[in-house]
Write a structure and sequence with these properties.
- α4 crosses α7 (119-142) and α5 (86-110) packs antiparallel against α7.
- This protein is mainly α.
- The termini are close together.
- The chain contains 8 helices and no strands.
């Protein structure tokens, strides 16, 4: 049983470490984040760029570090919202919960299958998920949580869960 658990742990670590051509993708991501469109609001502008990465442009991964860097740039460039500090983390958590509510409303009002099949509805759904991720990354920044710290906690939690539900 322990041998099987160790094998599962190794496989999980390998899956989280195996990044392929990450350096090339990071360079491409940086280039795409520089190329901004002319949209109505700066927040929508960043959201649209974030969504663009999953459109078959060759970006197979979008790492936490890349998202955090985008949030830092956004905060630096458009510092109209509350600053990134532990005191504002609570509000960011509450705003993220509000965005999660918007995601849930889409599924509740339309059903799960239409989110998969209807392109316009799916785009709205993904846009709201991008909002959730933006607040999530702002929360990480507020509390100074690094991607390595999060990765370590995630792997430890996954390993505990694998032994818990055997």
């Amino acid at each position: 049983n322990r041998g099987h658990l160790n094998t599962q742990r190794r496989e999980l670590r390998q899956q989280t470490i195996n990044r392929g051509h990450l350096n090339t993708q990071r360079r491409e991501l940086r280039q795409q984040t520089i190329n901004r469109g002319h949209l109505n609001t700066q927040r929508r502008e960043l959201r649209q760029q974030t969504i663009k990465f999953g459109d078959g442009s060759g970006m197979e991964e979008f790492t936490i570090n890349e998202m955090l860097e985008l949030q830092r740039k956004f905060q630096k460039e458009y510092n109209r919202w509350s600053s990134i500090c532990p005191e504002n983390g609570k509000n960011k958590l509450l705003w993220m919960v509000g965005e999660i509510g918007e995601v849930i409303d889409i599924v509740k009002k339309n059903g799960s299958q239409p989110v998969v099949e209807n392109a316009e509805l799916r785009a709205h759904f993904v846009e709201e998920l991008a909002d959730v991720l933006m607040y999530y990354n702002e929360i990480l920044l507020c509390y100074g949580i690094t991607s390595n710290e999060l990765k370590r906690a995630y792997i430890e939690k996954a390993e505990r869960n694998m032994t818990r539900w055997k």
